[in-house]
Amino acid sequence: MIVLRPYQSTIAPNMNYTSPVKICCIGAGYVGGPTMAMIAKQCPDIQVHVVDLNQARIDRWNSDELPVYEPGLDEVVKEARGRNLTFSTQVDAAISEANIIFIAVNTPTKSFGIGAGRAANLEFIEKCARQIAKCSKGHKLVVEKSTLPVRTAEAVKRILSSAANGATFDVLSNPEFLAEGTAVQDLLHPDRVLIGGESSEAVERLAQVYGRWISRERILTTNLWSSELSKLAANAFLAQRVSSINAISALCEATGADVDEVAKAIGTDSRIGSKFLKSSVGFGGSCFQKDILNLVYLCEHFGLREVAQYWEQVVVMNDYQKRRFSERIVRTMFNTVSDKKIGIWGFAFKKDTNDTRESAAIHVCRDLLEERARLAIYDPRVPESQIREELQLAFADSVGGLSDKHKKLIETNVTVVGDAYAAANEAHAIAVLTEWDEFKSVDSRRILEDMRRPAFVFDGRNILDRNKLVEQGFEVHSIGRPSK
Ligand code: UDX
Ligand code: UDX
Fold this sequence. Notes:
Blueprint: E1 5-6, E2 22-26, H1 32-42, E3 47-51, H2 55-61, H3 73-80, E4 85-88, H4 91-97, E5 100-103, H5 123-135, E6 139-144, H6 152-160, E7 168-173, H7 183-188, E8 193-197, H8 200-210, E9 219-222, H9 224-255, H10 259-267, H11 288-301, H12 305-332, E10 341-345, H13 360-370, E11 374-378, H14 384-395, H15 404-413, E12 414-416, H16 420-424, E13 429-432, H17 444-450, E14 456-459, H18 466-472, E15 475-478
Parallel strand pairs: 2-3, 2-5, 3-4, 5-6, 6-7, 8-9, 10-11, 10-13, 11-12, 13-14, 14-15
Antiparallel strand pairs: 1-9, 7-8
């Protein structure tokens, strides 16, 4: 059976799906918020109601300062908000009024019990399904937007089938492939939209929504399980490429090869392709590690030990890359960074986002603080409170407790500053941890004047002009290149 087929509109509307589409989305996070804003923008006649338990987050979606920073998102939200896009905490009412309900709540890695550290915590998904069952009448379409383990839809269907008031449901899997920092462009021009489901009428109903602005060839339909697995597999493949090039970067540093040259040389092979071969201090973000661990857990569950070990190595490699970077800083700076000021440029997990989940910067800063370095951290989009919270979590024990010693260490050794110059002022070293564009155009002469000597630069993203900096008098250490 061929399961992957471009979408074709061949199905007559089903009796269940004749009324105008009304959408509710549970979860106003990095995925739910931008995705729903785009649907509302592109389909002015469809009412879109985004709900979340978190009142503060909803308040920000209703303000001029959105909780998610994404280039171009402000304009999209402004166009639709108040017209056909609503944000509120009225979960029950929104469910009961809608006929398509997206679930976009978070699915963190379990931190307790069976599968701790690997399996996805599906508590929020299950709670959503129960709430939908409770508040629904008639027929509704339930769409899994969150990334989920394969066969989660089975559990969702079973919970929904217990609805007391005779409501009926179709369940679809419609994973989101947007990347943070480019969410608006990814939503406008996706490589593909994937819809997995059993009912062709339900698939058709959702495909028609996306079909308003996305060409039909890009709307792929599969069975439910292929769709759920494709999202995990796509993220695993992407993360694997980063870990592969990062593995090569270690070898480059040892041999005198240059990882960017190697990436270019292999990336021009059309079978390999040039994207996602940028060596870095390590991948971060809410998805890669979580989804791979989830995949590993699934493989173990099905007795596929070798497959599990294969994918787990992608995460092992990433941990090694982050650790290797902080160790290189300490080793290069005469084996001690104690009481030395290190300017940290960037804290987000990549540029053009305010998201810090699983950012490599957290791990590097924690390692340097363990060595008693003094850190001056600057990120153009991440607020001080968020940086401190992430560092506290990094030092917390397995039940979330923070020792007085670590609390004091963060208080005394971390300052969060307002620009890259302040971070570099009187610093012994600069570490670039996020590839923000503004770091490429700093006045490096001014930076050099303000720094201690030797003026070390550790470029964890290979974005600075290394030759220029070396000529000016910096000592530069990049990823995957011999030091200069
Ligand atoms: C992403 C993706 O949706 C998902 O694929 C992945 O599995 C986890 O992360 P994201 O939008 O980045 O989700 O998560 P987050 O920004 O944490 O947003 C989730 C929102 O759901 C939060 O605002 C949270 O308050 C809300 N939520 C969670 C509810 O409204 N109800 C719940 O029961 C649980
Ligand atoms: C990823 C997937 O790309 C997206 O399709 C999915 O929906 C969610 O997970 P995201 O995590 O937002 O998106 O960002 P992505 O651009 O994939 O980057 C992830 C991490 O890998 C970042 O820390 C980034 O800096 C790093 N990365 C990416 C590299 O180090 N090198 C690269 O070449 C590419």
